Amino acid sequence: MTLTPPVFLAPLAGITDLPFRTLVAGFGAGLVVSEMVASQELVTARPSAKARARLELGLGCARTAVQLAGREPHWMAEAARMAEAQGARLIDINMGCPAKKVVNGYSGSALLRDLDHALRLIDAVVGAVKVPVTLKTRLGWDDDLMNAPDLAVRAEAAGAQMITIHGRTRCQFYKGRADWAAIRRVKEAVKIPVVANGDITDSRAAGRALALSGADGVMIGRGAQGRPWLLAQVGADLFSSARPQVPEGAALGDLVAGHYEAMLSFYGADLGLRTARKHLGWYCDAAGTASALRQELLTLADPAAVLRRLPCAFDERLAA
């Protein structure tokens, strides 16, 4: 399976839902990854988990990995089978989430402290599906346990086909700067593709991350907020893929309105209104929308009123 360009959307809780993934994939990202899905919750049909893993046929689905988290091999395997049946092209295993709720459940980056158990999960998922299985993790638990190369070697032997490394330890959370150079030790330890992640916000940062890490590709998370075309831009700058048409003015207003309506349809009017506000804020920040108009958009309680005011936020002629 070839992922071109090797510029991927990172899984972001509450952000990389189906509407946003579809939008990013439409611009030309090589891969988009779902929000982290708790494996047992998916299998037992908890609605929120099903929504996070939801796929639809078409471009977005063709380039989508579903990311699973959990601590029990049985539930991980069953969830992987479900995601594959729904159309996931890859299954990604989360072994990097630093959140206390996840770590206290012995999932996410907690698995860096028990590589034997981490391998039991990888074995279970690889044995359950035919699609490629990948892994996302961190450099290690803390500065005294930088064991990502060891995990990568064992994961490769177990059948994992790609590994993404966030250039921080778990104990760093998101503080400091991602250490892209430290990712090189993982790249040198395995033959499977290695992807660099962390603090990659534009083409210059992506190029620097690739040079320091020796990685085969990059994964972008927060940098895409308010700029769903960013991944395609990086792909064009670094990998000679097709350059996207970046929307401005009225075209940007149309894009934001389309994204907003897709979120209302996906979540329902009430939840969609609230969930979409963070995206509206990021779009306004990226476009330099006047603060008063930005605040108005984020506090309106009627979706129809939001849609009426959106053109003014991105078209200077209307704003004037």
TrEMBL record:
The keyword Flavoprotein applies. It catalyses: a 5,6-dihydrouridine in tRNA + NADP(+) = a uridine in tRNA + NADPH + H(+); a 5,6-dihydrouridine in tRNA + NAD(+) = a uridine in tRNA + NADH + H(+). It is an enzyme of class 1 (oxidoreductase). Keywords: Flavoprotein, FMN, NADP, Oxidoreductase, RNA-binding, tRNA processing, tRNA-binding. InterPro entries: Aldolase_TIM, DUS-like_FMN-bd, DUS_fam, DusB-like, tRNA-dHydroUridine_Synthase_C, tRNA_hU_synthase_CS. Its EC number is 1.3.1.-. Residues 9-313 form the DUS-like FMN-binding domain. Pfam families: Dus. NCBIfam families: nifR3_yhdG. Catalyzes the synthesis of 5,6-dihydrouridine (D), a modified base found in the D-loop of most tRNAs, via the reduction of the C5-C6 double bond in target uridines. Belongs to the dus family. This is tRNA-dihydrouridine synthase.
